[in-house]
Each structure stands twice: as structure tokens, then as C-alpha cells.
Amino acid sequence: MDWAAAHGAECMELVPFAFRFDDKDTGKIDTAFIGQVKRRAQDAGIPLVNYSILADFCREGEELEKEIARVCHQVDIAAELGVPKMRHDVCGFRRPHAENTLKDFVRWLPVMAQAAARVTAHGREVGVKTMIENHGFFANGCDRVERILNLVNDENYGLLLDTGNIVCVDEDAAVAAQTLAPLTRMVHLKDFYIRTRDPGDATQFDCAGSWFRSRGGKYLRGAILAQGDLDMWNILHSIKASGYDGDIVIEFEGLEDAPYASAVGMQNARRIWNEV
């Protein structure tokens, strides 16, 4: 948080992959730790605006109920943190490619939407708006994301638009930004390199900087914002032209040093936003 403040950040989100705000065995929320985090953010002058977690509602029976309860518990953590928004997935973002078909999506669509509706109803009770992100290979792409949002049909539920993730399903990032901007409650700005031929060092999926495959077989790797192959000028123009005035967070998952890459990404985001 101190680093972010020193580099001009105006907001920050929390993603509890390397830390957690509850006891892993009992689930008891660690209010003391949360209090420390809130004070540190306040001292740094950095509002905490979002809390992002993984989730997978492509389940049945008791397993689905357990997952919904777990995500609702995470909503309670977001409320304790005082963040206004929380993003949760509706499916595993590492689903095998063979299970990402349209037939699979139609099969699981009502289950994912009903679970998300129950979670956002809980969020409304505790003052947290919930969001889906176009993430992974399944609940991604303009049509699929919009279908989920329409089926949930709740003002407390919206979209976290990730400008990079859309290329994981081989859609044009600039077109997707224009299409989805009116539904967007928050933005992740992310850039990718895109190759059609094998560059080597490719895996099925790896957020640590290696090349991975899109749903259609292209090779992708995270890039410093505005240094990759996505047209950030066109993307940000579409978002700005829609009237969006919410939070924008830089997400970097490339090979370069993360502080350096994040600092350049923030500078580029501000510069391009002002240019468009």
C-alpha cells in the first residue's frame, strides 16, 4: 500500500491468494488483522475498493451449497473490510478446454446464475455489491458474460471488465470494451502479447509469465500495459466514451519485475486516458 501511494495510486483491491482474513480451520474472521489493514490503507491514503476471490458454482447438491456458503462468508469478510465491491468467479477458471463448450455453458448457466443471485442477495444485506469478471475460458466472452448478468438480473450484481482476459476466448479486446462498458462496475486493465505460432515455453495455463493457450489455440503472455499487442488507446477510449467513471486497477502478470511493470502500467494508463 505504501508503494502504491508513493507511485500515485488512487485505489487498491485486495486478492487473498497469498494471505487470508480468516482462520483456515474454524473460518473465524480475523477482525484484528482486518483492522490493521484498514488503518494501513487509511494512513497511506489508498481507498480499498474491491475484494476478489475464486469460486466455482459448477457443482451439484451438497457441494454446491458448501461453495455458496463459502462465498457468502467471503462477502462477510468484504463487509468487515469496508470495501464496496467484491468479485467472485462463477466457475473454475482452469476448466479443461474440452469442458468449455457452448453445450457445457448452457448446462451450467442456470446453476451459476442462481448461485450468483443468492450470493448477491446476501451482499445486499451487508452492503457489498458483487461482480462477475470475464475470467478464464468458460464464463468469458461478451455473449456468455451478458447472459449471466441478464439471468441474475439484480442491481446489486455487475461486471468487472478485464480488458486482457477477453483474448483468452479469442475475442477482440477493443470491441469487447465497447460492448461491455455499459455493464461495467469496475475495470482491470491488463495487456497481453498474442502469437499465432509456438514461441516455446508454453503451458496449459500459467499466470506467472509463461506463454499459455487461448481457447482457440493462440499463444498468450502477460505484458506491461501498453507494451503488448492490445490497443489500449481504443480500449480506454471505449470505456471513457461510455461515461464510465469508476475504479480502474492495473493487473500485471508478465515476466518483468512486478514493481517496475506496475509503475509503468499506471503511468501509461493515466497518459492514455488523458489522450483519448
Architecture blueprint of SSEs:
Layout: H1 2-6, E1 12-14, H2 31-44, E2 48-53, H3 61-81, E3 85-88, H4 102-126, E4 129-133, H5 142-152, E5 157-162, H6 173-180, E6 184-189, E7 191-195, E8 202-203, E9 211-213, E10 219-223, H7 232-241, E11 248-250, H8 258-275
Parallel strand pairs: 1-2, 2-3, 3-4, 4-5, 5-6, 6-11, 8-9
Antiparallel strand pairs: 7-10, 9-10
Description:
The protein is of the alpha/beta class and about 280 residues long. The protein has eight helices and eleven strands. It has helices at about 1-5, 30-45, 60-80, 100-125, 140-150, 175-180, 230-240, 260-275, and strands at about 10-15, 50-55, 85-90, 130-135, 155-160, 185-190, 190-195, 200-205, 210-215, 220-225, 250. The strands form two sheets. It has a seven-stranded parallel beta sheet with strand order 1-2-3-4-5-6-11. It has a four-stranded mixed beta sheet with strand order 7-10-9-8, with no helix packed on it. Strand 9 and strand 10 (about 220-225) form a beta hairpin. The longest helix is centred in the middle third of the chain and has 25 residues, at about 100-125. The two termini are about 30 Å apart. The model has no long low-confidence stretch (mean pLDDT about 95).
